[in-house]
Design brief:
290 residues; alpha/beta; Spore Coat Polysaccharide Biosynthesis Protein SpsA, Chain A; two-stranded antiparallel sheet; globular
């Protein structure tokens, strides 16, 4: 398998779970501590040596592309004010990766979003990262998948165990564990009812795929929620040519879930040595008054 240089990041969703905060701001631009959600996702891709980011956007999301571009006016202001550290920070974001984008003109589902990027991906294997799934700790999550995809010469998806009461929020796989944490996928189903879930292994928004997935996506009919589901195309592909799944190590935050979003804010703020002590004191006092 060729090296993975491109990632598709679908960001065209409405972000209804995060309303009213996301009425006029893309959910991917909500800050977690001092960076927007999407920057964490792109940083993970960059750490896995991915160079080209393809955003699948809509008409209200151009601010996401702007975030990864230069802002010469702001840079001028920071330069004149002698704020060299801030200047370096904002420039570094513009220099992280190459940015491309394609419009998803109708929100017809995750599978449809991936299909929109077909012409930008062409013949190469590529990654897909869901724009509001944050993964942390150790080796970049997408890097873990790339490693297995290269070794097995097969598409690979990231999974994590979730409690049975949450299986209906995810794509769930049935897999045979061939070595610790590595599964051969037998089948998968999008957002099953608890009683129909084949396991507790949930797909977590990280995929390494080959371009033949586009042919499967072309053929799938609307599935769960009337949407073109990536999971349905993956299921067909897994049956035909095989697929692996990797149990991701590290932590995951779903930025569209308020409890997880707020926890992620505290988690990252606590990593900042300058803020840590003061934040812990404030939180301790606050908890005492609850
Ligand atoms: C999508 C996928 C689902 C996966 C989830 C991970 O669902 O369709 O299989 O488990 O991302 O976040 P969504 O959250 O977009 O409904």
């Amino acid at each position: 398998m060729k090296n993975i240089r491109k990632v598709i990041i679908p960001v065209a969703g409405w972000g209804t779970r995060s309303l009213p905060a996301t009425k006029n701001i893309p959910k991917e631009m909500l800050p977690i501590y001092n960076k927007p959600v999407i920057q964490y996702v792109v940083e993970e891709a960059q750490r896995a040596k991915i160079e080209d980011v393809i955003f699948v956007t809509n008409r209200d999301k151009s601010v996401i592309e702007d975030h990864f571009d230069y802002n010469l006016q702001l840079e001028g202001v920071l330069e004149r004010a002698g704020k060299t550290e801030k200047l370096a920070q904002v420039r570094a974001v513009a220099e992280m990766v190459n940015i491309m984008s394609v419009r998803q003109k109708k929100q017809l589902g995750l599978g449809h979003a991936v299909l929109c990027a077909r012409e930008l991906v062409r013949e190469d294997p590529f990654a897909v990262m869901v724009g509001d799934d944050l993964m942390f700790g150790g080796v970049p999550a997408i890097g873990q998948l790339i490693e297995v995809a290269m070794a097995e010469k097969m598409p690979v998806i990231g999974v994590m165990e979730v409690p049975f009461e949450k299986v209906s929020r995810y794509g769930i796989i049935d897999g045979l564990e061939v070595s610790p944490g590595i599964f051969r996928v037998r089948s998968m189903v999008e957002k099953p009812k608890r009683e129909h879930a084949p396991s507790r292994l949930a797909i977590v928004g990280r995929y390494v795929l080959t371009p033949d997935i586009f042919d499967y996506l072309d053929k799938v009919t609307p599935g769960h929620g009337g949407e073109i589901q990536l999971t349905d195309a993956l299921q067909a592909m897994a049956q035909k040519s095989g697929m692996m799944a990797v149990r991701m190590s590290g932590m995951r935050f779903d930025a569209g879930d308020w409890a997880e979003f707020l926890t992620a804010n505290i988690y990252f703020a606590l990593q900042d040595e300058d803020l840590r002590y003061e934040l812990l004191e404030l939180l301790k006092n606050f908890v005492q008054f609850q």
